[in-house]
């Protein structure tokens, strides 16, 4: 990236002025679509005029999509294989992983200012003086941010600390106006938790039925501004995100398999969502993971305690920052593990480094040497008082945590009749929105048919929500998926319409084939015209199921017997099994599912008996 012009930086740092494009780059790089910081909040500091770079406005493909396409291309070219050969090496080396998860808390305000935390709004429209470090501005701790933070910590079995404090962690980057991040370093608000992962969570087979991973601590901290990277080394800055409240969850280095690491991140996302601590998951950028990776020779004899729960001498760790999908967590660990083993086996030394990973790549890339405590010059923030948390608040939150995901899975499996795999998928898709949608469909269905068995309804609805609806959009990338469900479980196809459709299906008012056609119509009408319902589609198309009349059965049976004289002779000669063939022939041409197998058999037998007689 080219340097920010010193004059622009100076105007910003000392005068709080941003160019109208809302970014620190010279005006020609700034897109006019990104409006300036609210002048209301800026006391009318006049932002310089900017002209739009016309080349930029041509860029319409989202960056994430480009990365995905690039990854697909590379995979197709066959450049993405390497790790399989390493199985033998893995017998000699043990992998160790510790993860830091940054999750955006579910609050209305930022951590130290009253600016709104609303996302996906016009860039740079929710920014208070303090958020951009205007000289003279002060942090004001927004107490309500503690509630989701505490709920998260309790769901992860942590001990809540009576007193915690905020510290400054110094480093300069364009996404952090103050030159330091306010975090909790010396005294975090939660410590010593754990999470239990089961086989159904997707842990590695080597971890057996369950594995418990310790959580060293959870701290509250500020988020940074969002950098929106564009092709051509152009980076736009959105300060709406700066100062949003995050929790950083730090695990002990107790993970030894890449798939277990991915399972841990997935499960933490599900848990945070279940207790309403965080509503946005990785898919929406509300959760990011840094993975710390080291390897050591198996059976290495020397051991010494360290600060991570008394574990023995681990290898030198490297850290891969900012992973934004479960797959990226797994793939990046595999790539880094293999790189470290290769390097050590070749006689090299692992350096403490921060490394990066891009979707679809097969290698991690060095970004910089790992910052140490000294580099960060941690110091207690003199502008913030200690946070004192009362026992009454903690016990109230503990008692009102609600149903946790392990329990939720049990309910979906035991009561709703789903497989564990489907229950997991429902809970993890769309940040939990798909499970909510599923429950809404079941509820609507039971409203139409209260006597129905819950397990039967659950199975039917689960199958349609996950598989039939999923099939409508499986070619599309997440961000393009028009069926994306909100956290409250609504989407383009209303739950009530799907419930009505499934009710007609299970009461034989329509056939399975018709139900699929209606679903596709509801999807299309939701996209283009709106207003169609299950009923209006079926009435319009005349798709109600009408069973064959006796006369029609007889006509069809005769047709089939006439066309298969040889088979009829075989049956007459005693080969009863051939009757199935004739029934199959009757059903074959039946596009609308109107032929009932037992009735068809009855008719065939009647005609055969007549021939015998
Ligand atoms: N040898 C090791 N191998 C693998 N993981 C390790 C090792 N030593 C420590 N870790 C993990 O590294 C992580 C360290 O996170 P922590 O936030 O404490 O420090 P940091 O990475 O230096 O800080 P930050 O990245 O926030 O600036 C923990 O998850 C820990 O389990
Ligand atoms: Mg950390
Ligand atoms: Mg770290």
UniProtKB/TrEMBL annotation:
Biased composition (Basic and acidic residues): 66-80
Naturally occurring in which organism (per UniProt): Hyaloscypha hepaticicola
InterPro entries assigned to the protein according to its UniProt record, in alphabetical order: Asn/Gln-tRNA_amidoTrfase_suB/E, Asn/Gln-tRNA_Trfase_suB/E_cat, Asn/Gln_amidotransferase, Asn/Gln_tRNA_amidoTrase-B-like, GatB, GatB_Yqey_C_2, Gln-tRNA_amidoTrfase_suB_CS, Gln_synth/guanido_kin_cat_dom
Keywords: ATP-binding, Ligase, Mitochondrion, Nucleotide-binding, Protein biosynthesis
Function comment: Allows the formation of correctly charged Gln-tRNA(Gln) through the transamidation of misacylated Glu-tRNA(Gln) in the mitochondria. The reaction takes place in the presence of glutamine and ATP through an activated gamma-phospho-Glu-tRNA(Gln).
Compartments (UniProt record): Mitochondrion
PANTHER family: GLUTAMYL-TRNA GLN AMIDOTRANSFERASE SUBUNIT B MITOCHONDRIAL AND PROKARYOTIC PET112-RELATED, GLUTAMYL-TRNA(GLN) AMIDOTRANSFERASE SUBUNIT B, MITOCHONDRIAL
EC top class named in words: ligase
GO biological process, one term: glutaminyl-tRNAGln biosynthesis via transamidation
The protein, known as: Glutamyl-tRNA(Gln) amidotransferase subunit B, mitochondrial
